[in-house]
Specification:
alpha/beta, Aspartate Aminotransferase, domain 1, Aspartate Aminotransferase, domain 2, 7-stranded mixed sheet, 4-stranded mixed sheet, 37% helix, binds pyridoxal-5'-phosphate
Length: 459
């Protein structure tokens, strides 16, 4: 029997504001328990064929996705409030991305840019140089994943400064490769048992207004004092930070924190790297989150939303820093693959010309409005924060403010069982994050939040 979901032929679009995606009915539709029988079959095969370390959040066999839904092999249609971790921001299977990929893949699948260069890679670099914050001369290099972009940004900063040390922050997430595990703060599940880690990585406190109750200036002074006393600017290559910390809990730093860190870096000849892998490309209601905080990073790393779901990543930054590396010092077999670059050009066109920055702001208003309303009558929601379509709720003990990871997990699990894909995050595992595709229609977002609210009330 062909494993095609019956819903693929159900072509009704119920909301004309839907941008992109295959023409899947934009509805939550639960026709079996989750997981249904076909999904259970796949998950059983997964358990015997796929390494146990590769876990999953939503127990389904996904067969199609678009607009604001993910459809499974049993015909269930789930509301997508995760975008595959902030990746399908333009919408899953966005028609422009699909067409660009189909054209590109029929032309050539690979030459290796380091062997025979091609237009799409250069065009992506030009677009990134134009879009990244700051009006200085910029250059870019392309890679396959966020972690690889971060690794290369550190390599570039070390080569430019001639210094070894790197500062990362509490609650940071920068990836799962060896150097990026060292940069990542959280042991479980990202680092535990995977050492030894790369040396010359130093951790300092971040700004976490809900928990540290410090002003941005005070939090920055604390971090800078540790940097100066324990590391020293003269051995420091780079400071790397996510403008809004993603896996760490969608932590928005207090006003003034990031500008103070950037100013210190500039005054001390240290490269400031903004890791915009999760925050980039319209997600926060700006093309890049750095703009929200009025900072101009020396380098930014991007991935996730860049290519509508195709694997691509980049480092973009000041030309003199990017050019400090010797010829042949940067690259990789697949980095900037032509099919991924074609997808990125189509996705970037959508970010710029389909009103997706404004759409992220609208979605953010719906999300934070509803979550604040819930918070007003439920003190277990300690904090609601974020920007644009990157909003989170932090769950706590109302009296002690202690993180409530059990409640968080219970709410997320119940929402998923009811057909709403939500992701958790946070150093303490007590944050539910909302990252809807920017193609989601309002009614699905609202319904998804209704389901989460009901799950919370029942928990
Ligand atoms: C996801 C993420 C990474 C790692 O990206 P991969 O593509 O998974 O390697 C790095 N930094 C941030 C901020 C991320 O959110």
């Amino acid at each position: 029997m062909p494993r095609v979901a019956p819903t693929l032929t159900d072509m009704s679009i119920t909301d004309s504001t839907v941008v992109g995606g295959p023409t899947l009915a934009q509805e939550r539709r639960i026709v079996t328990a989750i997981p249904g029988p076909r999904s259970q079959e796949l998950l059983a095969r997964k358990a015997s064929a796929v390494a146990a370390g590769v876990a999953h959040t939503v127990p389904i066999e996904a067969v199609a996705a678009g607009g604001g839904v993910v459809v499974d092999a049993d015909g269930n249609s789930l509301i997508d409030l995760g975008s595959g971790i902030a990746v399908t921001s333009v919408g899953n299977a966005h028609p422009g991305v699909v067409a660009a990929v189909q054209d590109a893949v029929a032309q050539m699948t690979h030459t290796c840019f380091m062997i025979s260069p091609y237009d799409s890679y250069v065009s992506v670099a030009e677009a990134l140089n134009r879009l990244a914050p700051g009006d200085h001369a910029k250059k870019s290099a392309l890679f396959n994943s966020g972690a690889e972009a971060v690794e290369n940004a550190i390599k570039i900063a070390r080569k430019f400064t001639g210094c070894p040390a790197v500062v990362a922050f509490d609650h940071a997430y920068h990836g799962r490769t060896n150097l990026t595990m060292a940069l990542t703060a959280k042991a479980m599940p990202y680092k535990s048992g995977f050492g030894p880690f790369a040396s010359e990585v130093y951790r300092v406190p971040a700004s976490y207004p809900f928990r540290d109750e410090l002003s941005g200036a005070d939090a920055a002074a604390k971090a800078i004092s540790i940097i100066e006393k324990q590391i020293g600017a003269d051995s420091l290559a780079a400071v790397i930070i996510e403008p809004i910390q993603g896996e760490g809990g969608f932590i928005v730093p207090a006003d003034g924190f990031l500008p103070a860190i950037v100013d210190w870096c500039r005054a001390n000849g240290v490269v400031f790297i903004a890791d915009e892998v999760q925050t980039g490309f319209a997600r926060t209601g700006a093309m890049f989150a750095s703009e929200i905080f009025g900072i101009v990073p020396d380098l930014i790393t991007t991935a996730k939303g860049i290519a509508g779901g195709m694997p691509l990543a980049a480092v973009t930054g000041r030309a003199e820093i990017m050019d400090a590396t010797h010829g042949g010092g940067l690259g990789g077999t697949y980095g900037g693959n032509p099919v991924a670059c074609a997808a990125a050009l189509a996705a970037i066109d959508a970010f710029e010309h389909e009103g997706l920055i404004e759409r992220a702001q609208q979605l953010g208003a719906i999300l934070s409005g509803r979550l604040r309303e819930l918070q007003a009558s439920d003190p277990r929601i300690g904090d609601v924060r974020g920007h644009g379509a990157m909003i989170a709720a932090e769950f706590v003990d109302p009296v002690t403010k202690a993180p409530d990871a059990a409640l968080t997990a219970a709410v997320a699990k119940a929402a998923i069982a009811q057909g709403v894909i939500v992701l958790t995050c946070g150093t303490y595992g007590n944050v539910i994050r909302f990252l809807p595709p920017l193609s989601i229609p309002d009614h699905l977002l609202t319904e998804g939040l209704d389901v989460v609210a009901a799950a919370l009330a029942a928990a």
